[in-house]
Amino acid sequence: MFSFLPSYIFPAITDISPEFLKDRKITLLLMDFDNTMLPYTENTPSAELLLWIRRMKDAGIDLCIVSNSHKSRVPDFCREYQIACVVHAAKPGVGGIRRAIEQQKADRKHTALVGDQIYTDVLGANRAGVSSLLVRSIHNHNFWLKLRHLFEIPFIAMARKRRVK
């Protein structure tokens, strides 16, 4: 489905609870990396993010990072914290998302993708037939990221009833 509207909106990735996912029968959570989990400019996760990862794993939610990145920081992070990953995903294309689902032996009906960008993460998730979870960018540190966010505001406004508090 070609849609820029997220299934759900959260303030941050750490606001997504295992209970929320389980209530919706989500067993695999695909995650964008840059500006969703960590700022572009950092490599060290916060204690809050590490606790959230542990809670997800303890609840039986499978995690897989699906990133468009070509940098080694994503696979390095995944190795260190034992998280599956697919890089060079080319979102909003669906190939990387499908590879992650196949790699994790999951069903797209039980999969969600969380990210900070409507034009890549949300659109890619919707096109792949998985639930799309939008979070606020951690840090829009340059002009282009700020401009992109301005163009996303109308879609966020249209989806305002999908906010989860």
Describe the structure.
This protein has 165 residues and is of the alpha/beta class. The chain starts with 7 loop residues before the first strand and ends in a 7-residue tail after the last helix. It has one domain (8-162): HAD superfamily/HAD-like (Rossmann fold, 3-Layer(aba) Sandwich). α2 (47-58) links the parallel β2 and β3. The chain has six helices and six strands, in the order βαβαβαβαβαβα. It has a six-stranded parallel beta sheet, sandwiched between helices.
How do you describe this structure in short?
Helix content is 38%, strand content 15%.
Compute the separation of the termini in Å: 26 Å
**Helix and strand succession?**
EHEHEHEHEHEH
General form: globular
State the CATH topology. Answer: Rossmann fold
| CATH class descriptor name | Alpha Beta
Largest sheet: 6 strands, parallel
Number of strands: 6
CATH-scheme architecture: 3-Layer(aba) Sandwich
- Counting helices, strands and paired strands, the structural category is alpha/beta
Strand content: 15-25%
Would you tell me the overall average pLDDT? Answer: 92
Unreliable stretches, pLDDT < 50, 5 or more residues? none
* Rg: 14 Å
Side-by-side strand order of the widest sheet: 1-6-5-2-3-4
Bin the helical content: 25-40%
Number of helices: 6
Total domain units:
1
Mind telling me the CATH superfamily name?
Answer: HAD superfamily/HAD-like
